[in-house]
Design a protein that fits this description.
It is a single chain. The protein is mainly β and 172 residues long. Helix content is 6%, strand content 36%. It has one helix spanning 95-105, and strands spanning 3-9, 28-30, 44-48, 66-72, 76-77, 82-84, 86-93, 118-120, 126-129, 134-137, 142-145, 150-153, 158-161, 166-169. A seven-stranded antiparallel sheet has the order 2-7-4-1-3-6-5, covered by helices on one side. The protein has a four-stranded parallel sheet with strand order 8-10-12-14. Strand 5 (76-77) and strand 6 (82-84) form a beta hairpin. The longest helix is centred in the middle third of the chain and has 11 residues, at 95-105.
Length: 172
């Protein structure tokens, strides 16, 4: 059964060691150095179902970074990321659009852990999103976001973010 993987690249679709990722939907990419070991390297890498550890790369820090959603058959999980030999590009574009695409097309993706997800809810509601995400809630709500994200809540609410994030709450 195929799975969807999220990954981030530089604005020119390159990554480590100058590897160039395809930028068109339907393009196929194959790891030139594939080795099916449970170690980083020797394969293509990403976050299975859009969940994982963003600290393994820094491309997401670039304002014009590119995000890919890739369809893969087999993955080797590496604790916070995964690697694979071959993938088909299913989405190429911006961070929040990639997260929304993944959530819509991958039933194993969940918004509360999804990297780059943007969610807004109403008064007295709660929302949880993954690293680099954005959560916005109305009056007396709760917004929780992973590392590097942004949580904004109206008066009387609670906003919590992980490392290097931004939390803003109204009065009270």
């Amino acid at each position: 059964m195929s799975k969807l993987v999220l990954r981030c690249c530089r604005s020119d679709f390159t990554s480590r060691n100058g590897f160039v990722w395809p930028s068109e939907v339907g393009d196929v990419v194959v790891a030139p150095d594939w080795e099916p070991t449970e170690e980083c390297g020797n394969g293509l890498h990403g976050w299975l179902y859009g969940h994982g550890d963003i600290t393994c790369v820094t491309y997401w820090e670039e304002a014009d970074s590119k995000w890919l959603v890739l369809e893969v058959d087999d993955v080797i999980e590496l604790g916070g990321k995964c690697k694979f030999e071959r993938a088909v590009v299913r989405f190429a574009g911006g961070k929040s659009d990639a997260a929304a695409f993944l959530l819509q097309h991958e039933p194993r993706a969940t918004a509360d852990k999804l990297i780059g997800m943007t969610v807004s809810v109403g008064d007295e509601e709660s929302v949880f999103v993954g690293a680099l995400g954005t959560a916005t809630v109305g009056y007396k709500g709760t917004a929780t976001v992973g590392d590097g994200g942004t949580a904004t809540v109206g008066d009387g609410g609670t906003a919590t973010v992980g490392y290097n994030g931004t939390a803003t709450v109204g009065d009270g």
